[in-house]
Amino acid sequence: MRRSLCILQLSAALLVAQAAHAQDAKARAEALFEEAQSLMKKGDLGSACPKFAASQKLDPAVGTLINLATCYERQGKTASAWASFHEVAISAQRAGQDDRAKFATKRAADLEKKLSRVVIKVTGNASGLEVRLDGTVVDSSEWGSALPLDPGQHAIDVSAPGKRKWSTTVDVGTDAMRTEVAVPTLADEIITTPEKPVVAEIEPPPAPSSSSPLRPIGLVVGAVGLVGVGVGFGFGINAKSKNDEALAHCPQSPKCNDQQGVDLTNDAKASATAATISVIVGGVLLATGITLFLVAPHGKAKSVTAIIGPNGAGIGGTF
Fold it and tell me: Cα separation of 44 and 168, whole Å?
């Protein structure tokens, strides 16, 4: 008994909740309907038609559907109006509203004469081919049939696995215009893969039998510098000898007693200058030769690698 009572209470609660929800939906539908009627009277069809549609979805009614069909017709959406009047005729006939059924049937017949249609012809037979009209899938049974559409631009998108997508836009006119759209065979989708770089080993030219040419050059330059230093020392010894002889004729140097003393003094100065220049130049050449000899490379590159890839080229190797 207790279990049966609980079930009855639960069922009653669900019925009350459903009734409350239905009443709420009716209230919202009525508010939308009244607002839509006001907007349609003002000529704001772009706002009125969606509200009629929302009201019909919340609480389907023949009267709301008639207003929605009329709104579509005034807006120039002949296909939507034609479909809505067809629905009105069926609903009114079921409800026993003969006058409304006759009215809707006549309006649908008048609009059918003005319908513009689009025929989508599919020639390809790719597996998994999908055709979409304004984002909605068109069943394969509708391919090749004359589909009624509202005047304006409509997008057609075609796709299939492993194929390139194909799209087009068709401009549907008024007054029973018929447009055919031929869908071409979809091309295979190109799958690009990153290219691997081409690596080629390039052997370097054979190295000369001797070492770097800097080494013999360094030896020559160093030898010349060494000779220069030796010559400088020779001039230095000669300068000292001349100076010693000059002192015998010039006891009160730099004053001399005779011309020979003056000549010896001048010869000593000339030899001293030559000695200085020779030593400096020879020293520089000697240092340069030593440097060239020491910095000359002793090895050679073992291998060079050329890398050629999609992002450019470069070289590498071991040295």
Answer: 31
Find the radius of gyration of the CA atoms of the chain. Answer: 55
CATH topology of domain 116-183: Immunoglobulin-like (2.60.40)
The full 3-state SS of 94-135, as one line of letters, equals HCCCHHHHHHHHHHHHHHHCCCEEEEEEECCCCCCCEEEECC
How far is 73 from 45, CA to CA, in rounded Å? 10
d(CA 106, CA 99): 11
Average pLDDT across the chain, whole number: 80
Q: Could you report the per-residue pLDDT of 131-162, keeping only the tens digit for each? A: 999 999 999 999 999 999 999 999 999 999 99
Residue with tokens 């800097």: 214
19-112 CATH choice from 3.40.50.150, 1.25.40.10, 2.60.120.10, 1.10.10.10: 1.25.40.10
Task: Give the start-to-end residue ranges of the domains of the chain.
Answer: 19-112, 116-183, 214-299
Q: How far apart are CA 252 and CA 210, in angstroms?
A: 63
Output the six-digit token pair for 136: 């909605």
